[in-house]
Amino acid sequence: MFSYPLICINWGEQVKYTSSIKKKGTFKYLISKGKYSREKYIVVYLTKNNKPNNVLGICVSKKNGISVHRNKMKRWIREIYKIEESNLQKGLNLVVMYKKDTKIEDIDYNTIKEDIINSFKKLDIYEI
RNA sequence: UAAGUAUUUCGGAUGGUCGCGCAUAUUUAUAUGUGAGGAAAGUCCGGGCUCCAUAGAGCAUGUAAUGCUAGAUAACGUCUAGUGGGAGUGAUCCUAAGGAUAGUGCAACAGAAAAUUACCGCCUUAAUUUAUUAAGGUAAGGGUGAAAAAGUGAGGUAAGAGCUCACUAAGUUUUAUGGUGACAUAGAAUUUGUGUAAACCCCAUUUGGAGCAACACCAAGAAAUAAAGGUUAAGACAAUGCUCGUCGUCUUUUAAGGUUGGUGGCUUGAGGUAUAUAGUAAUAUAUAUCCUAGAUAAAUGACUGUCAAAUACAGAACCCGGCUUAUGAAAUGCUUAAAAC
RNA sequence: GGCCCGUUGGUCAAGCGGUUAAGAUAUCGCCCUUUCACGGCGGGGUCACGAGUUCGAUUCUCGUACGGGUCA
């Protein structure tokens, strides 16, 4: 069923920061195979690969709001990940997903930051 | 002061630390510059641009579109100024506003009748049962309905009727005056033909189709097609046999189409700003000056200082002109009402 | 980004401008039955929303919202 392997991402180049997921099939593969941790507004999926870099994917559904709000929610997650990146392990595939009922009136930058840090702690991906 | 109405403007500014897209430099890691709207939205119209079709002209077809006048515009179903009609005390606003006398259809229920009408009525004649019937005339009055054959008065009559007359209302034709024109005002003749075209339809005008996932180029890979050439390698036709020949196999080149990936298309344009002139205005012309996003799972974020205080609707995806819808704040003019002078 | 289609009780769904908007199923109430089921009677609709045309709009026209399909 999931005939779209992870090889579709080009690993040969040197990537400055973490690269992003681009295909719909990879999202499906990671969500079905990975471990997850649920918070109040967010779900984080985790799998491992044997490469030197990390991969990040962000999902915001069309039911979470209009395009301005969706863009802002994506930018918050990128900002939080950028700050926490230096403390993480290497060789991870991460997918961050907003829940269906989440609206921008309920949440804030700081609440999302708490959620993500909690879920990272649960999944044990911080370097020691 | 309150309520309303019309028009216009703005859509936070300036710094610091970390970080993102693009361009340019040196250089391969830094520096500098720049970086989302008035609606970017809806996709309701019109154009540019690209490809396809097309000698030229006409007719027909179409789930076609538009429909008062003059002007503006590259063009428009848009805009400006007016005309007619309608709403409002008023400022002001709305108006798909040709044709019902080309033809067809529809008008539920109610009502006699929804278009050459007659239930109750009014009148005349005849008959006899003397208060009813039959034949005829008539459309004044009644009731129904959204809508009932133009309204009032007088004459006239057996009873009545635009049957006749006066005034009024509406339509058609026509004359004069004013206006570029739609049309307005005044007069004459004639008529009183229900409504509906946002029902079919008729008339006039316009219209070839598709859309940047268009289209062009580059590279890769392997399958199929066509043309030309080489050659006889599986083979077939033909022949006693051989050669030539034809088809086919193999192979080379070219062409066209398409798949995957990439590049271009991609932002200097019916551009913006200021001033002057013409015009009631929309807008046009001239001069000077400026270059202001271009991504491809898709760039604007986090923390914070100052400005008394503070940000609603909302995110470019080839470009431009309009319309519609969502929405915060401020200013000005005008109208109505109340109060005071 | 472009191009099309639709919206009628909880669900499915008919409706050539005109009577209180057909029908099925579900649900609620009453009746039938010793009781349940079957059966009988009845109730409940902003015709997505807002303007317009018309005497009159679920139906015709325009706009808005929501949902669905499609492109090589």
Question: What's this, in brief?
Answer:
With 128 residues, the protein is an alpha/beta fold.
What does this structure look like?
There is one protein chain. The protein has three helices and five strands. It is α/β, with parallel strands linked by helices and 128 residues long. It has a domain at 36-123: Ribosomal Protein S5, domain 2, CATH 3.30.230. Strands 1-4-5-3-2 form a five-stranded mixed sheet, sandwiched between helices. The model is unreliable at 1-17 (pLDDT under 50). The structure holds two RNA strands.
CATH class of one domain: Alpha Beta
Helix content: 25-40%
Please name the CATH architecture of one domain. Answer: 2-Layer Sandwich
Note the overall shape: globular
pLDDT below 50 for ≥5 consecutive residues: which ranges?
Answer: 1-17
How many β strands by DSSP?
5
Structural class: alpha/beta
Radius of gyration: 14 Å
Provide a count of the helices: 3
Average pLDDT value? 72
**CATH-assigned fold name of one domain:** Ribosomal Protein S5, domain 2
Strand share of the residues? 15-25%
In what order do the strands lie side by side in the largest sheet? 1-4-5-3-2
Distance between the termini: 38 Å
Secondary structure blueprint with pairings:
Blueprint: E1 19-20, H1 24-33, E2 35-38, E3 42-48, E4 55-59, H2 67-84, E5 92-98, H3 109-123
Parallel strand pairs: 1-4, 4-5
Antiparallel strand pairs: 2-3, 3-5
The chain binds 2 RNA strands through helix 2.
